Amino acid sequence: MAFNKKQHLQQNIDALRIAFTLEKEKRQATVGERLLMMQYSGFGGLKFVLNPVTNDIDIHHWRKTEHDLFPLTQELHELLKENSEDEKQYRRYVDSMKSSVLTAFYTPPQVIDAISETLHHSGITIERFLEPSAGTGSFIQSFSGNQSTTITAYEKYLPILTDVVNGTWPKEERLTELKTELAALERKIQLSITPIAEEKINELSENEQKPKQHSNISASFSKRRF
Description:
Blueprint: H1 5-25, H2 31-37, H3 70-82, H4 87-103, H5 109-121, E1 128-131, H6 138-146, E2 150-153, H7 160-168, H8 172-209, H9 214-225
Parallel strand pairs: 1-2
């Protein structure tokens, strides 16, 4: 599947917006917010976020193939400005993004789980785990589930996400809580779907059991006409 720049940028914006909100409201993330924050993938492969976006005419300095990304990039910078105390802090955010563009790339959860499970099944025990580019905790979640590991994590590119990591995955019981909540949600969805499926099956079964008389009646009427 091709790397979708617009999708990844939108997911990053959503994650950052939630992170800023949680910081302001001094609270833990909800299940829905956690799931959205887990989509954060850094800005590797999104170097256009460093292009000028101050004025609408700045789009003329962009590649034509990336013009559709201009509005979202404006939204990103507006979000950072709105949540910066001053221009200096905003510039720090931009510099962090610049570092992320050069070195940070998205790792799919399936790949992370495969690494964690392989180490676990090979009998390799990880006692201490340092994650200097934590994003929103994908590596932390996977390795916490398979091993009893002391984890130190922070987000060197966008410090605001350090609080997201710590707030979302502070302890193993928080991971268990999330899994329980998701399992309950899945059961609720299944319960709502099952009656409908059973009703359809029963309806089909009843139709199959009804005697097929319509064709005979139609044939009878046809014979009388002739």
